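2024-03-11 09:14:02 INFO worker-7 job=invfold-0412 stage=load source=structure_tokens
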């Protein structure tokens, strides 16, 4: 039987290109598309037979038979793009039908996923990540999440160390046509935690972990690729994403207890892939920072450190590693 891998992501995703090139090198048939292509540039015809969905996906330049799909690489797809001229109620109804119909058929395919989007959505909750990490035996910074100024201030005073603020829903913030990146921010004045404006939404505060380095661990199946990120930049030492130009990279081994804990986290969350961030304190202890990204970036580390991450993902998608 022919084998096909679907790559579902936006048109500008250069990291996904690495996996496409690896699959192409292996002679694997690949169909890449964006969920935004449905329904206007992507057609679905599907029939449910005895325990299997069959049919076709037909795009502008490629097509695939559903029964040939052995793997799906689900990265950063856009939203369904519906025809112009629809009323708002028509849009809402059509979007729901597209999500449950088109998305439902894809979910029903008996194949490997990196990652299953339902599992990804659940795993993006940082409180779930943290409690799962603790249950798996990983160290975490002391953490407070809430919208109660008095309790936030009391918590910060009680732990008696520096704390930082981190966004819960991602670092990109767009307002009035301008895009801003929200990095981890030190709280230099604890009294600011008593500000009534904290009540407007949930806030995420964490104990500051003094660092000798941070580590990004990219997990693909049973493989773990760990890179220590060193920087002398003041901004980079608080949040390495704030100053990529200052980075120095070093491939490191993952301690056995961290490897076991991280493996348990992925098993509990139902993930095949993640990018997890750790801080190593001056005593050499690894702290999971509550950042386990089911769709985290890896391309730049694979490039700088010559890591075979694309090959590992291709192995899973082909079914070589389940």
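2024-03-11 09:14:09 INFO worker-7 stage=emit residues=322
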């Amino acid at each position: 039987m022919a084998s096909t891998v679907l790559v579902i992501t936006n048109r500008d995703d250069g990291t996904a290109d690495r996996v496409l090139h690896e699959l192409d090198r292996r002679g694997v048939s690949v169909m890449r598309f964006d969920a935004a292509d449905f329904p206007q540039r992507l057609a679905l015809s599907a029939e449910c037979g005895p325990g299997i969905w069959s049919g076709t996906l037909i795009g502008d330049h490629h097509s695939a038979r559903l029964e040939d799909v052995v793997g799906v690489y689900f990265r950063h797809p856009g939203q369904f793009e519906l025809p112009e001229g629809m009323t708002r109620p028509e849009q809402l109804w059509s979007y729901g039908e597209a999500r449950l119909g088109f998305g439902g058929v894809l979910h029903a395919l008996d194949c490997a996923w990196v990652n299953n989007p339902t599992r990804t959505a659940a795993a993006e909750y940082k409180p779930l990540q943290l409690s799962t990490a603790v249950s798996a035996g990983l160290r975490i910074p002391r953490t407070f999440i809430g919208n109660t100024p008095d309790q936030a201030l009391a918590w910060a005073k009680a732990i008696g160390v520096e704390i930082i603020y981190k966004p819960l829903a991602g670092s990109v913030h767009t307002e009035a046509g301008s895009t801003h990146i929200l990095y981890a921010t030190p709280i230099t004045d604890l009294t600011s935690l008593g500000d009534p404006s904290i009540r407007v939404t949930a806030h995420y505060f964490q104990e500051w972990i003094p660092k000798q380095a941070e580590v990004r661990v990219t997990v693909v199946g049973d493989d773990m690729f760990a890179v220590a990120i060193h920087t002398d930049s003041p901004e980079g030492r608080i949040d390495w994403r704030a100053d990529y130009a200052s980075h120095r990279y070093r491939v490191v081994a993952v301690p056995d207890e961290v490897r076991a804990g991280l493996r348990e986290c992925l098993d509990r969350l139902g993930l095949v892939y993640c990018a997890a961030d750790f801080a190593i304190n001056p005593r050499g202890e690894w702290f999971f920072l509550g950042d386990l990204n089911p769709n985290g970036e890896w391309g730049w580390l694979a490039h700088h450190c010559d890591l075979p991450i694309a090959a590992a993902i291709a192995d899973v998608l082909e079914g070589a590693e389940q």
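2024-03-11 09:14:09 INFO worker-7 stage=report msg="The mean pLDDT is 91."
2024-03-11 09:14:10 INFO worker-7 job finished
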